[in-house]
Task: structure prediction
Amino acid sequence: MAEAKVLIQPQPGPQSKFLATLADIAFYGGSAGGGKSHGLLLEPLRHADNPDFGGVIFRRTTPMLRKEGALWDKAKELYKKVGAETMEGDLSVRFHSGMSLQFSHMEHESNIYDWQGAEFPFVGFDEVTHFTERQFFYMLSRLRSMSGIPGYVRATCNPDPDSWVREFLSWWIDPDTGFAIPERDGVLRYFVRDGDAILWADKREDFTDEQRFTEDGTDRTKSVTFIRARLQDNKELLKKDRTYAANLEALSYVDRMQLKEGNWNVRPMAGTMFKTGWFEIVDAAPADIKMVRYWDRASSKKEGAAYTAGCKLGRSKDGTFYVIDVVRERETPGGVQRMIQSTAQQDGVPCTVGIEQDPGQAGVAEAGGYTKLLAGFDVKVVIARHDKVTRAKPASAQSEAGNVKLVKGAWNSAFLKELQGFPDEKYKDQVDAFTGAMYVHTQALTGTFTKAMATVTVNKNVAPSTKGKDLW
Result:
C-alpha cells in the first residue's frame, strides 16, 4: 500500500501572508498563540528541494531552543513529516535534497563573531525582541546565496515597547493606541543605513542615488514588512487547545495587553500593575485559612532608606487571598531580626514564615541564621533572581480578577498607595512582601515549582540549599 501523502501548508490569513511576502526582511508579530513560530519553521520548507539553499534559525539561548515543547521540539515534529533527518548533537536538520538548516543561540552579543565567514540564504529569529539591534543587523552581513534565492530574513516577536524592534517597526504601529495599523499590514517599505541612522522611504526610487547605491553600483536598499499575528487567526491551536485563550485572559493586565491583544505601547508603570479599585476591604478574614508572613528585608534606620516589610497573607478554601496585616519599619540588622522573631511569635506557629534570601554565599549564611532564630516555625526560604515586575505579575493577575481582599487596618492606605505606584514608586518593599507571600502560598498548595521562583523548606537548624532548584 502506498504511503499517504501529508499536506503541509500555512493557515489562511497572516501565516500565509508571512510565507508569501517578497520582503527582504519580514517581521511576524503580535499575539501569543498566533502561529508565529510555526510560520517561521514552515518558511524553509518552500526551498526543501534546493540543495544549495540553507539557513539558520536563532533563539537567544539554548535552553529556549531545547526546553520541552519549544522551537526545537516543534521543528523535529514538523520536519520528520517530510523525511528530514534531525541531529540532536548540533541541532541541525538535513533534508532529502541535501539542504541543511541549523538551529542556534546568540546568548551574548559577542556571539556574533561565531558567525564570521558564514554564508546563508536564510536567517530566522524567533522572538527577535530578545536580541540586540547589533546582533540582528550583523547577521544581515551573513546573507549570501548561491542557491538562486536572494538572501532574506524572517523574524517573529511578541510586543515589547522597550525593544529596538518597536522603534524599527513604528510605521506599522499606531503611536497612540499601540496596535498594528490594519491597512499597513504586509505593506513593504524600504530603508538604507546612513552611518548609524536608518533612512526610510515608500519606494526604492525615493532615495537619492547617493543614498541608494554604493560606489560599485550595488543597491543598498532593503525592503521590510510587518505582519500582525492574532490568536483568532490560529484556528488549529484554538481547535486543539480550547483553554489557551482563557489562559491568556488570566494574565496580568500588562502581559494580557501585550500577549493577547498585541499592544506595543503598554508597559509596566504606575497604575497598570495594580489599581486600588481592585481590592475590596473587609472587616475580617475567614477563620479557617492558611497563612504566610513573607519578609522583604532591609538593614538601615537612615531616613530615606528601604523598609523591612512583612506581609501576612491568608488563602481561603475557595482560593480567595486575604491580606491580613502588613508591617514595615526601618531597622538595623539586629532590629530586623528582633522584629521578624517577635512578629512570628505574635502570628503563631500555624503561620508559615517566608524569608527572602539575597544572592551569594553571604545570603545563604544569613538565611541559615534566620532558620535558627525561628526554630519551631515552618520557614521557607525564597531565592530571588528575577526582577520585581516579573515577580509581581501573578499577584497582579489575581488582584485584577478580584481574588485579593484587604482586611481593614491602619496599614491599608500606605499599602494601596505603594501598589498603585508600582513599579515607579521609590519604595517597593510592601509589594515585594505581598508577591512573595502569594508565591509561597501557591507553591505550597500545588507542590510544584516554576521557572520564575523556587522555595526551599528549611527544618530547624539546617541551612538552606539551592542545588537543583529554579530561582524566583
In short: The chain has two domains: 14-240, 276-458. The CA atoms of residues 57 and 124 lie 4 Å apart.
